[in-house]
């Protein structure tokens, strides 16, 4: 069946090959590049494959080679509101957001998809490395490039209008195909870091937005060990940048209290977490888990996968880990998997350590 497909073209190799594959599959494809900044020069420059002026030009050239119509959509206001401001507000509240995940949720598969459907398109095509099988999101065979985690926030309805043509191949295969197709982005480096922080200095960016406010760094007993220039520049699990001096044993950030502007530090073992509560759960691969279900959970992009039991309780996701994890920050996403199938996700709102090496009772639901 021929579909009208809107191909989101970032300017990188993945989205270019995805668009070409959609055309080859017989679909009626239109390319679109998202202009995400009112001042593109303020975003990362160089061959990054994300949001720069060069990327817009690379996307247009790729569309010309593929032979599809191409447009640029100005989504700077939506991006500033839904991604950049959210990023700042989350850090201000002592949480650690994932801006790429928020961009997928709020921009690429909300604002763009809404506009695409209104214009009569059937699906939005992207170059994400993930698979859609029977409407369910699955991991890519290329484990190093798998992006199912950052897509785990998508709803069933959004996935029904999504297309991931690269789901069956590795990144090396994508580059080789781009070269065969004569796409100039074949060897373009992958994008990394946060596109709207041009110099990669997250602390400096946050200080510019939120200001610098000195406060105490305390240990678990409340003793002041040092000072900082703003609690919003820290994240749970962080070790570098504490500047506590050689007389203090190695310490990690355990918690951040934004109201009191306090950072609490302690030994690595105090970072252990075996129970996680997540807010606003999204169930894309199954119905809400009303009873504890054995599965796995990923707690950060490219992070370790943990065996767990998970269930929904009073509108929240509860995850009980089989073995403790460390450095788990609120604001990140907990994405549940059954094998390689995404079951659902939630935003981490609470973490705790219930007990070590003991089988804990699961509360009734």
UniProtKB/TrEMBL annotation:
Gene3D superfamilies: Adenine nucleotide alpha hydrolases-like domains, HUPs, Translation factors. One of its GO terms (molecular function) is tRNA-uridine 2-sulfurtransferase activity. Its EC number is 2.8.1.13. It is an enzyme of class 2 (transferase). Residues 145-147 are annotated as: Interaction with tRNA. InterPro entries: MnmA-like (IPR004506), MnmA-like_C (IPR046885), MnmA-like_central (IPR046884), MnmA-like_central_sf (IPR023382), Rossmann-like_a/b/a_fold (IPR014729). Keywords: ATP-binding, Cytoplasm, Disulfide bond, Methyltransferase, Nucleotide-binding, RNA-binding, Transferase, tRNA processing, tRNA-binding. It catalyses: S-sulfanyl-L-cysteinyl-[protein] + uridine(34) in tRNA + AH2 + ATP = 2-thiouridine(34) in tRNA + L-cysteinyl-[protein] + A + AMP + diphosphate + H(+). ATP binds at residues 8-15, 34, 127. GO terms for biological process: methylation; tRNA wobble position uridine thiolation. The active site is at 103 (nucleophile), 195 (cysteine persulfide intermediate). GO terms for cellular component: cytoplasm. Pfam families: tRNA_Me_trans, tRNA_Me_trans_C, tRNA_Me_trans_M. It is found in: Cytoplasm. It comes from the Bacteria. CDD domains: MnmA_TRMU-like. Residues 204-266 form the tRNA-specific 2-thiouridylase MnmA-like central domain. HAMAP family: tRNA_thiouridyl_MnmA (MF_00144). Belongs to the MnmA/TRMU family. This is tRNA-specific 2-thiouridylase MnmA. It comes from Haloactinospora alba. The gene is mnmA.
């Amino acid at each position: 069946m021929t579909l009208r497909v809107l191909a989101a073209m970032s300017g990188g190799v993945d989205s270019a090959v995805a668009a070409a594959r959609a055309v080859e599959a017989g679909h009626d494809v239109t390319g679109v590049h998202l202009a995400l900044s009112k001042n593109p020069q303020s975003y990362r420059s160089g061959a990054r494959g994300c949001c720069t002026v060069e990327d817009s030009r690379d996307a247009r050239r790729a569309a010309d080679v593929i032979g599809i119509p191409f447009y640029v959509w100005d989504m700077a206001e939506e991006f500033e509101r839904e991604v950049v401001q959210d990023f700042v507000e989350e850090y201000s509240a002592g949480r650690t957001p994932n801006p790429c995940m928020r961009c997928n949720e709020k921009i690429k598969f909300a604002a763009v998809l809404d506009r695409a459907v209104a214009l009569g398109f059937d699906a939005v095509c992207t170059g994400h490395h993930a698979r859609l099988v029977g409407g369910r999101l699955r991991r890519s065979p290329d484990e190093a490039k798998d992006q199912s985690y950052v897509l785990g926030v998508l709803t069933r309805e959004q996935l029904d209008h999504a297309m991931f043509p690269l789901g069956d191949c590795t990144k090396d295969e994508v580059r080789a195909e781009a070269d065969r197709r004569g796409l100039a982005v074949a060897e373009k480096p992958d994008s990394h870091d946060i596109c709207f922080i041009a110099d990669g200095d997250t602390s400096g960016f946050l200080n510019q937005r939120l200001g610098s406010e000195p406060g105490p760094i305390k240990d678990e007993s409340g003793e002041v060990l040092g000072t900082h220039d703003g609690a919003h520049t820290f994240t749970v699990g962080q070790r570098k940048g504490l500047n506590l001096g050689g007389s203090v044993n190695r310490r990690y950030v355990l918690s951040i209290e934004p109201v009191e502007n306090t950072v609490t530090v302690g030994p690595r073992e105090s970072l252990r977490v075996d129970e996680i509560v997540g807010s606003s759960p999204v169930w894309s691969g199954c119905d809400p888990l009303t009873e504890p279900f054995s599965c796995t959970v990923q707690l950060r992009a490219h992070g370790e996968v943990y065996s767990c039991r998970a269930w929904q309780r009073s509108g929240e996701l509860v995850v009980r880990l089989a073995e403790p994890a460390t450095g788990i920050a609120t604001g990140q996403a907990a994405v549940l998997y059954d094998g390689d199938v995404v079951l659902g996700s939630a935003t981490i709102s609470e973490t705790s350590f219930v007990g070590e090496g003991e089988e804990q009772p699961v509360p009734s639901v």
